[in-house]
Design goal:
With 304 residues, the protein is an alpha/beta fold. The chain has helices spanning 40-47, 70-74, 91-101, 107-116, 131-143, 161-176, 188-194, 212-221, 236-241, 263-272, 287-299; strands at residues 2-11, 14-24, 29-33, 55-60, 65-66, 76-79, 149-153, 180-184, 197-202, 205-211, 224-231, 248-250, 253-257, 276-283. It contains eleven helices and 14 strands. The strands form three sheets. A six-stranded mixed beta sheet has the order 6-7-8-3-9-10, with helices on both faces. A four-stranded antiparallel beta sheet has the order 2-1-4-5. The longest helix has 16 residues, at 161-176. 38% of the residues are buried.
Length: 304
């Protein structure tokens, strides 16, 4: 549904994105990750047809069409990072304007306003809205068309718990219907919950691409088992290292990195060596730690 082929975009002398290639299939949810200034917004705007490539091309839809063409734009719905509407209009008036623009059915106005959970504020002017309410209104506008592709740039940045529930509900419904999602977020909890695949942009280049299975495997390998021992024979560490080579002492704790599936063997090795365990803590790795590791690796010149 979305294909980037050697996509590059320059703004004067500045290269925002360079030689990025990837594709997204129907029904797939893909997250764009990366530090500020890494090219995420430029990439999303290119898929929305709002940024024309300096090099390469971006195709959207089925059959694929250049992202800047009316056919491609008709197949997408885009929520920008900064949502702005005329403050003199009410929430209902904003939604109705975009409903007519996208030629959606009359029923859609009430449906998306209910989804956005504006708590009765749809008849009030936007000048009375908080930032989170405006963001929820943006979600309502993005949800209006039944588009096969949904593009979201930092969709949860200003959302409160009610807004987050509305957002997750929107995405879950679209995924069940086989829609395609490409989004960026600094909220890694959103990324773990929603994405089937994770793309890391660093300095405008694609530095890593991980499926959910690959991410799970990488995180599993970065888990840690911490043991406090009442008795620790002198040869205990050597015995444990025969099954867990990365085991080490950290103060009074025996630290055993590695996947959860390997921990029973390490525990057996501790007991067989005469160690008496008084406390055990299993720490599972999180996406934020892997993200920092990938960013550091990419910035040092290594690409995963």
């Amino acid at each position: 549904m979305i294909r980037f082929e050697g996509f590059g975009k320059r703004f004067g002398a500045h290269a925002a994105v360079e030689d990025v290639s990837f594709s997204i299939e129907r029904g797939e949810a893909v997250a764009l990750l990366g530090p500020n200034g890494s090219g995420k917004t430029t990439t999303l705007k290119a898929a929305a047809g709002l940024v024309r490539p300096t090099s390469g091309r971006v195709l959207v839809g089925n059959p694929p069409a250049d992202a800047s063409t009316p056919a491609a734009r008709a197949s997408i719905s885009f929520l920008p990072q900064r949502v702005s509407f005329p403050e003199s209009l009410t929430g209902a008036e904003v939604v109705e304007f975009y409903r007519r623009l996208r030629r959606s059915s009359l029923e859609r106005t009430k449906e998306v306003l209910r989804m956005a959970s504006l708590n009765g504020a749809s008849a009030r002017p936007l000048s009375t809205y908080s930032g989170g309410m405006v963001q929820r209104l943006g979600l309502a506008v993005a949800a209006l068309p039944d588009a096969p592709v949904l593009l979201l740039d930092e969709p949860t940045a200003a959302l409160d718990p009610d807004g987050l529930c509305a957002f997750y509900g929107l995405v879950d419904r679209r995924r069940r219907d086989g829609r395609t999602l490409l989004f960026s977020s600094h909220q890694l909890g959103d990324v773990e919950r929603l994405a089937d695949r994770f793309l890391l942009l660093i300095g405008g280049r694609l530095a890593a691409s991980l499926s959910r299975r690959e991410l799970t495997e990488r995180l599993s390998k970065r888990g840690v088992l911490r043991l406090s021992l009442e008795a620790a024979p002198a040869d205990l560490l050597a015995a444990v290292r025969r099954v867990a080579p990365s085991a080490t002492w950290s103060g009074d704790e025996l630290v055993i990195p590695g996947p959860a599936a390997e921990r029973p063997r390490a525990l057996d090795a501790v007991r067989e060596a005469g160690g008496r365990i008084v406390n055990l803590v299993a720490e599972e790795a999180r996406l934020d730690s892997l993200y920092r590791e990938l960013v550091a690796s990419a910035e040092n010149g290594a690409v995963s």
